[in-house]
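Reply to dn_fold:

You asked what the input looked like. This is it:
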Amino acid sequence: MKKFGSYLAAWWKLSRVPFLSVGILPLVLGFILAWRWGYRGSFELYLLAVAAAILIMWMTYYLGEWNDLEGDRINQNFNRFSGGSRILVKGILPARVSLLLGYGCLTGAILVVFYIYLQYRTDLRTLLLGGLGIVFGFFYSNKPVRWSYHGWGEILIGFCYGWLPIATGFFLFTGFFSSQIFLLSIPVGLSIFNVILINEFPDEEADRAIGKKNLVVRFGKERMGDLYIGLSILAGLSFIKMMWGIGLTAHWLLALSGVPLFLILWNLIQVWLGNYRDAERLERLCRNTLFVNLSVTMLLTVQQTILRPY
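and this is what came back:
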């Protein structure tokens, strides 16, 4: 029983279960937006959509652990938010387990997407949305494309954890797209882009050694720090713009949006001061950047719930 518990704990860490929230929450935001438009669906469809999103994320995580193992082994500057789960590096689970789980989740994701398409008689755009998530996730670290090794990974993460889940959650119940999807995806996509970007800072030396040419390796921490600051400002401004639709006074708007706005300000000051050069402060910066994304998505979901239906 004790051995089973240790394996379960290892699987939990390898699967990065808490980090599934960055994909599930935007999907729920899409559900809520569809609800505001007056569209409902079966509870099974909600569960299937969430299951497909989880399987795609797990596929990406597992295959990323397998493909990045060489870099993770030589990485000495990792923290809780970078450098992989360390489960394969420490030999707690055999490396092939991650590979098998990745392909198992790939198979499961394909089956769920086709089941939704056939069972609920949606059009081909359902397959397109699901296919984009699967293809981008599979080739994020897999050969021959390896988006994350050529400076495209950050952009695709912004798309796949921003516009794509919101659009999917909305489309599944409405059968069409709305400009509101794009507007909501701006602060969500920019903030998750920054999550990936800042998480590359601790891994720069290891990534450079294995030829992983992400944005930080290509352009350096100082220039990518400037990009982080710029995107933080844009994320904050777009978030305020979307929250303003509630119709609250500036006082109440600030009170409701205070947490992400304070974190955005704190983060960009830390980067501007160059505090990412300190390992402990960099880990806090990685954590708080993740909190920005989660709080922004949750508050936008609350905002869409509060607003009157169309």
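The domain at 15-306 is CATH 1.10.357.140 (Tetracycline Repressor; domain 2).
Hope that clears it up.
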